[in-house]
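Session log. Operator J.P. requested a structure for one protein chain; no other inputs attached. Running the standard single-chain path with token output.
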Amino acid sequence: MSFFISEKDTEAYLALETRKLPMPDGTMQPLTGFKLMWRSVDYLILTAGYSRKQLVQLALINTKETGHSFEESFNNVIAYIHREIRKQQGID
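Structure written below.
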């Protein structure tokens, strides 16, 4: 079964949204990303049992290991975890 989305829906997913993420030092860091990324974050929290704190920690580890910015690392971590869960579910 194929799933298609309209151009209007695609544009909505590519709109930017800013949310605040809890950092280990107790501050809240604003992060801007595509709505599609935030939808993946919500999915990981609601269905896969991750917390925002765990996702931030993984992104900080990735930042340290790769030298990428926190924003890029957060996006990469979300994409990687989401893809791995989809593979386990037999979707990808």
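Operator note: The first helix runs from residue 7 to 13.
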